[in-house]
Amino acid sequence: MTDRKQEGLTQLGNKGTKYSFDYDPSVLETFKNAHPDRDYFVKFNFPEFTSLCPITHQPDFATLHISYVPSERMVESKSLKLYLFSFRNHGDFHEDCINKIADDLITLMDPKYLEVWGKFMPRGGISIDPYVNYGKEGTVWEKVAFDRLSTHDMYPEKIDNR
C-alpha cells in the first residue's frame, strides 16, 4: 500500500471508485517503469469502449487495442479503464476519439512508441477502424512508427466477429 501511495496512485485499490460519464483525462495516473533500460510492449485490449456519435447521439461500440513501449512512466490500468469509460457520453467521431486517446497517453507518459487501434461495430452497414501511432522523434521508434503505419493495412485481417 505504501508503494502505491508513494507513486501517487489514487485509483488502484480505491473502494470508492467514481465513474465519470464525461470525457475526463484527469483520471489517468502513471507509475515508474521498473525496466526503462529495456524496450518491451505493453498491450491493453478494451472490448467495451463506448462513445456517442456527435451528430445523431447514438452510441458507438468498439474494441480498442492500445500498445506502447514505455519510457520512464507507465499508465496504471485502472485509471486507463476509468478514462476510457469517461468517453461513454462523449460525442466525437471514431477517428477523433482514437487520436484524442493517443494524444492524452503521449502527453501523460512520453512513451517511446504508442499505437491505438479502434475496431468499431458497424452502424448503417459500415464499420470504421481508425489506427494511429507515434514514435518518439529522434529515436529508432520514429522509424518503426512510420513503417508500421505505412504497412498497417497491407494484409487486412478477416472480419468475422461483427
Automatic annotation (TrEMBL):
- Main localisation: cytoplasm
Q: Which GO terms describe its cellular component?
A: cytoplasm
- Pathway the protein takes part in: tRNA modification; tRNA-queuosine biosynthesis
User: Taxonomically, which superkingdom?
Assistant: Bacteria
Please list the reactions this protein catalyses: 7-aminomethyl-7-carbaguanine + 2 NADP(+) = 7-cyano-7-carbaguanine + 2 NADPH + 3 H(+)
Write one Pfam family the protein is assigned to: QueF
Which keywords accompany this UniProt record?
Answer: Cytoplasm, NADP, Oxidoreductase, Queuosine biosynthesis
According to its UniProt entry, the protein's GO biological process terms are: tRNA queuosine(34) biosynthetic process
Q: Which residues bind substrate?
A: V75, E76, S77, H94, E95
Report the SUPFAM superfamilies cross-referenced here: Tetrahydrobiopterin biosynthesis enzymes-like
Q: Entry's PANTHER family?
A: NADPH-DEPENDENT 7-CYANO-7-DEAZAGUANINE REDUCTASE
Family the UniProt entry places it in? Belongs to the GTP cyclohydrolase I family. QueF type 1 subfamily.
Chain's role = Catalyzes the NADPH-dependent reduction of 7-cyano-7-deazaguanine (preQ0) to 7-aminomethyl-7-deazaguanine (preQ1).
Q: How is this protein named in the record?
A: NADPH-dependent 7-cyano-7-deazaguanine reductase
UniProt organism field: Sporolactobacillus putidus
